[in-house]
Request: fold
Amino acid sequence: MSTQVSDKLQQVRQRIAKACASVGRAADAVTLLAVSKTMPAQAVREAYAAGQLAFGENYIQEGVDKIAELADLPLQWHCIGPIQSNKTQLVAKHFGWVHSIDRLKIAERLSAQRPAHLPPLQVCLQVNVDGGANKSGVAPPDLLALAEAVAKLPNLQLRGLMTIPEPAENDTAARAVHRQAKELFDSLNAAGLKLDTLSMGMTADMEAAIAEGSTCVRVGTAIFGARPTAA
Ligand SMILES: *Cc1c(COP(=O)(O)O)cnc(C)c1O
Reply:
């Protein structure tokens, strides 16, 4: 399996480099977050051996268990899944980044619960750009107010936005949604926030996301293979 993970990782790096080159962006303008949800710790070790340091987890308890199992490695852990109030303490203690903040109450709890010996939690706001009704994410009209409030919290550092668009029918449609996210991102910076992270693009749409300005793609399937169940 180890050659498999390292080969796939190499292929994903090539996809990113090619997508950057095709729109004239520097190859290091986009970072790769390896999404290891549902995958065993051993798969993370294999990716680490192939040079991958940043990993994303959706399910908090699963992520915390994996973080503990892999505490011997210098990994950077990103929480990218929905966060209920009763899980904020685990997130504040164990993760370095959170991409999935969509309400102030969760941000306030994370800031209050961030242990003093750790650097500020690096956070992105999840925004529901395409208006999917049953999806998490702040609605675009509410984004600026949330961003301004989160930016004031002492133990969080607001870094940017995350989007999870509905699967698009084609590349043109995917790019249109990603472009809207980039416009929101630019509008927050124009309003005086200092954001450097636009977390968008997954296995199916990383090229479209990169073409529209993504700075971080979150890739699971293309690195680790298909997940056991719909997750
Ligand atoms: C599962 C997941 C990913 C990775 O999706 P793939 O299609 O497997 O690359 C990225 N972001 C989030 C928020 C996810 O839940």
